[in-house]
Amino acid sequence: MKLFTGLVFCSLVLGVSSQSWFSFIGEAAQGAWDMWRAYSDMREANYIGADKYFHARGNYEAAQRGPGGVWAAEKLSNLREDSQRITDRFKYGDSGYGVEDSMADQFANEWGRSGKDPNHFRPDGLPDKY
């Protein structure tokens, strides 16, 4: 736990080097909220094939907040994918289950964080609400 806390603190310090702490922390909080909103919308929509769209959208919206949002989006995306790999290992053993999907999710995450249009991943028929 100390190692994890140290890594988070160090990445925070490196991310804040070019701006004030307060604006960075605010951007990170807003970016985390954007990620949560995209996740909630994905769960609500429950639309087959929309997973990558919501990954890209959450990262895109968070990144629009600034460097703090980019930082939050990257950390939360990596945490989500890493935790999913761990739970998949317990469920399915060392079969490699879900590796391709995780890589595709990370591609969509990076797509959105880089400022590219998340609608690239939007499936046909997904309600306009999202």
Brief descriptors of the model:
globular, mainly alpha, 130 residues, 0% strand
Number of DSSP helices?
5
Arithmetic mean pLDDT: 87
Order of helical and strand elements: HHHHH
Report helical residue fraction: over 70%
Q: pLDDT below 50 for ≥5 consecutive residues: which ranges?
A: none
- From the N-terminal CA to the C-terminal CA, the straight-line distance is 37 Å
Radius of gyration: 16 Å
Estimate what percentage of residues fall within beta strands.
under 5%
Please tell me about this protein's structure.
By secondary structure, this protein is mostly helical. Helix content is 72%, strand content 0%. The longest helix has 26 residues. The chain is globular.
Summarize the structure.
This protein is an all-alpha fold. It is 72% helix and 0% strand.
Topology of this structure?
Blueprint: H1 2-16, H2 21-45, H3 51-63, H4 67-92, H5 99-113
